[in-house]
């Protein structure tokens, strides 16, 4: 593949927010008037080539940029990976610590905090309305309110609004002009080791239950929803993938907003001519990875439940990464104007922040969702877009231990920031928290998908909204454990829904042979 074709391929994997992030990061290496006209990845790449910052023989800067915005899967198109870029950064970095610190703040600030910050900042109203946080930072730089040597304004604002993110600024100041990148990379995009802001998970109260353990006696090793063994090779693969903790988000998990926050919350309209499309990507056979036995149970259960809810279901099996992209583009191009919503379920192996094609290559979850933003799929604007992912997000296992009802999550477990696009109306349901394995039984299907289907069937007729349903799914899965009481799992929902989503109650009762009543 020639150099320009490679750049176009990378451009295809970038969304609008990615382009804006790259432009922001390049403000110190490209002339700002040149950046104003850039609207696409290939236009930015052309500017970098014009300034001889990248060329056919040296395009490390592009790898550095993709690394910073956590598009680690696209590094493979450059013939490299996350680990190799990390090793080279101490000797070749171009993007300043200051620029990365600002980007770090923009990635981690929540929607509500962003509004409060904008309210406090001493900027003209026109520089606040309908602006992204990166736009606001650019304006502050333009007015010389913040500079590489003066971030006092940011300190004051974040101290008042978001003290947990203040550590990012403090660490930057501590390093000063002598700051050098450590071997693991100066500053990973959202939670680098030295910039760790240690957002702690809220305490969870769970009580271990051994109910239904008997059904899990066979094939314990098949529970692990992973493309390799838990340790060893899988750990190496994890280093080469993106981290969902480090990707674009407008939300923190388990944050202030709860399903019951407002009984008067406006509802999404579910009265169009059609309910919507439901795409189910079921990857069970891989070139190298272990076969995912039992995945057909999940695909069948999802098909039964979402068909019952009125969606037009399509199941596609064993897609490679390019086929996954092609399938997503096909559904993106459909006319959704007479439909209420869109649902996408992906059942496969995975690593941190990614799902895996049958060719053992990865697609970032961020990219999957980017096809359906308001700018990419206009007919889904203001409509709910639901994504449910059954895949490992790492190599670790949750140990099952006899805990008292008021037991809490260990302090070293961070409060993860998930890559839901900043555009509104998205919901992402992950089968497990970042860094951990998800479990699937080769006979009954996965804990998460079966719990999701079971609770949709039980709670939709009661008029419950989707967030209440997912809260119940969290509880049910957290109480599951294998027959040896060694493995646990905790799902992870995140969302930018602006209204309550309540599926209309179907006219007929649910009947299925695939969604197990007592499923794991």
From TrEMBL:
Keywords, comma-separated and alphabetical: Apoptosis, Cytoplasm, Hydrolase, Nucleus, Phosphoprotein, Protease, Repeat, Thiol protease, Zymogen
GO biological process: apoptotic process; positive regulation of apoptotic process; protein maturation; proteolysis
Main location group: cytoplasm
Cross-referenced Pfam families: DED, Peptidase_C14
Subcellular compartments: Cytoplasm; Nucleus
Location of the DED domain: 2-80, 97-171
PROSITE patterns per the UniProt record, alphabetical: CASPASE_CYS (PS01122), CASPASE_HIS (PS01121), CASPASE_P10 (PS50207), CASPASE_P20 (PS50208), DED (PS50168)
EC number, as in UniProt: 3.4.22.61
CDD domains to which the protein is assigned, alphabetical: CASc (cd00032), DED_Caspase_10_r1 (cd08341), DED_Caspase_10_r2 (cd08814)
Domain Caspase family p10 per the UniProt entry, residue ranges: 416-503
UniProt family annotation: Belongs to the peptidase C14A family.
UniProt cross-references to PANTHER family, sorted A to Z: CASPASE-10 ISOFORM X1, DED DOMAIN-CONTAINING PROTEIN
Name of the featured protein: Caspase-8
Protein source organism: Xenopus laevis
